[in-house]
Automatic annotation (TrEMBL):
Its EC number is 6.1.1.21. GO terms for molecular function: ATP binding; histidine-tRNA ligase activity. Signal peptide: none annotated. Its main location: cytoplasm. Residues 31-383 form the Aminoacyl-transfer RNA synthetases class-II family profile domain. It is found in: Cytoplasm. This is Histidine--tRNA ligase. One of its GO terms (cellular component) is cytoplasm. It is an enzyme of class 6 (ligase). Homodimer. It holds the Pfam family tRNA-synt_His. The lineage of its organism: Bacteria, Pseudomonadati, Pseudomonadota, Alphaproteobacteria, Hyphomicrobiales. It catalyses: tRNA(His) + L-histidine + ATP = L-histidyl-tRNA(His) + AMP + diphosphate + H(+).
Length: 500
């Protein structure tokens, strides 16, 4: 008789572009989200939630038109042969929601939402297939005052999260200004959409590649350090010079930048319109005292096709060092802009809208690097662990756990099968501050049943210290001591209070 084949062992391997997160990261993220939520609500925004899955056609014109539209998004067919996709961002689903409930919603409609989004793209450093965003949007307000307010809120939110003033900038540009450049170099019209996108991607790399690198990308193309070649936009020298007239128009302040824009776009109506909107934003942020944090920057592009007016990015300007002493700069941790046509895709008429999105995962990494209190104060300790030394007395140990929980103290009964030392090591791995021990000696004590309280944090400190310390005996007495069973809760509270 042939023995049954053993099925192959599954590989415990996480797919590329995804991450697991432990309790400390989750606790810190929750605190981040609560801080962002409070900041958005201060500005009058209210919560809404949209699902992870939308009809693919609802996600926007920036998706490729393929038989199976799976480039950029994760897609599948429903049982009615309709294409569905995991959401690419939180803005397109909001546009669908507003259009579907348009008559019931107040206008302007101010909402925020947080959640995971999914990108079916090649993963790499800092590029994930699943990551969290936290958005705020105003729908139904045509005035650029709505854009200026979003930028101010973004600045204040970063500061509440622990980013110091001077360590970030909210950079603002206008897609109409960029459209004016395209008109000036002869790349207007639908037939030039592909080349326009190539030009915009080149402009977006100006901060990183500088004049020479962007010139190559605007021209024939560029070979990077790895030897990979990126085909350029094919512009001639005159056209490239016109693009750099925009990129190098930044002045010492917003007023000077707007004045230079007015000169560059004197002959292009679209560029003039965008310049006028930037001038208004500059005046509003100046009046509100935000001019030092919100700056007009000609290199800001934003990649998605649905932006129609002001666009903005939140950029961290500080540097930190990695474990090998190399400098790290986090760059953009959020962005957004005006998208007056996105809701109109569902209604047949444009509906003005503007919004901002924080990249929660990237910002979390930055807050960790600067040791923001949002992160460092969220590192939650493990529960108090009640050890099980005698199997015949599990019910008694369970009573200790119940008493602690009724007092509001996180606690657990050890449910494994190891001995005392292994149980204490388990408590250490859990990050516990306190362990509860009762063996026959404590249970049969002459003065009545007792429990031993082990201060695990103080015990670790004691183990690393010298017995020559003057306070060694005092520390040892505090690190482990016995109390009557009736004083268990009070003694545990005392230990926990030592460590804040």
């Amino acid at each position: 008789m042939t023995a049954p084949k053993t099925p192959p062992r599954a590989s415990a391997k996480l797919p590329r572009g995804l991450i697991d997160r432990g309790p400390a990261a989750l606790a810190a993220t929750d605190k981040m989200l609560a801080t962002i939520k409070a900041s958005y609500e201060l500005y009058g925004f209210e919560a809404v939630e949209t699902p992870f899955i939308e009809y693919t056609e609802a996600l926007g014109k920036f998706l490729p038109d393929l038989d199976r539209p799976n480039e950029g998004v994760f897609s599948f067919k429903d049982d009615d042969e309709q294409w569905l996709s995991l959401r690419y961002d939180l803005t397109a689903p909001l546009a669908r929601y507003v259009a579907e409930h348009f008559d019931q919603l107040p206008k302007p409609y101010r909402s925020y939402r947080a959640g995971y989004v999914f990108r079916n793209e090649k993963p790499g450093p800092g590029r994930f297939r699943q990551f969290m965003q936290f958005d705020a949007d105003t729908v139904g307000a045509a005035s650029v005052a709505a854009d200026a307010e979003i930028c101010m809120m973004a600045a204040q939110t970063l500061e509440k999260l622990g980013i110091k003033r001077g360590d970030y900038l909210i950079k603002v540009n206008n897609r109409k200004v960029l459209d004016g450049v395209m008109e000036a170099i002869g790349l207007g019209g639908d037939e030039n959409a592909g080349r326009r996108l190539t030009v915009l991607r080149a402009i977006d790399k100006f901060d990183r590649l500088g004049h020479e690198g962007v010139s190559l990308l605007l021209g024939a193309g560029r070979k990077d350090e790895s030897g990979d070649f990126t085909k350029g936009a094919g512009l001639d020298a005159t056209q490239i010079a016109q693009v750099f007239a925009l990129l190098e128009a930044g002045g010492k302040d917003n007023a000077e930048t707007v004045a230079r824009f007015a000169e560059v776009f004197a002959s292009t109506p679209r560029g003039q319109e965008g310049t006028a909107e930037l001038k208004t934003i500059a005046e509003l942020v100046e009046a509100a005292g935000f001019a030092d944090r919100i700056r007009i920057d000609p290199a800001v592009v934003r990649g998605l096709e649905y932006y129609t007016g002001p666009v903005f990015e939140a950029e961290l300007t500080f540097e930190v060092q990695d474990d090998e002493g190399r400098p790290i700069r986090f760059g953009s941790v959020g962005g957004g802009g005006r998208y007056d046509g996105l809701v109109g895709r569902f209604r047949g008429e444009d509906v003005p809208a503007t919004g901002f999105s924080i990249g929660v995962s990237r910002l979390f990494s930055a807050l960790t690097a600067i040791k923001s209190p949002i992160v460092t104060s969220s590192m939650q300790r493990g529960p108090v662990v009640v050890l099980v030394l005698d199997k015949d007395h599990v019910a008694r140990y369970q009573g200790f756990v119940t008493a602690l929980r009724e007092a509001g103290i996180r606690s657990e009964l050890y449910l494994g099968s190891s001995g005392m030392n292994a149980q204490l090591k388990y408590a250490d791995k859990r990050g516990s501050l306190c362990g509860i021990i009762q063996g026959s000696n404590e249970r049969d004590h002459a003065d009545g049943p007792q429990v031993t309280i082990r201060d695990l944090a103080l015990g670790a400190e004691l183990a690393a210290s010298s017995k020559d310390r003057a306070d060694y005996l005092e520390l040892r007495a505090k690190a482990q001591f016995a109390v009557p069973e009736s004083e268990l809760v009070a003694a545990v509270r005392e230990v926990l209070a030592r460590h804040g």
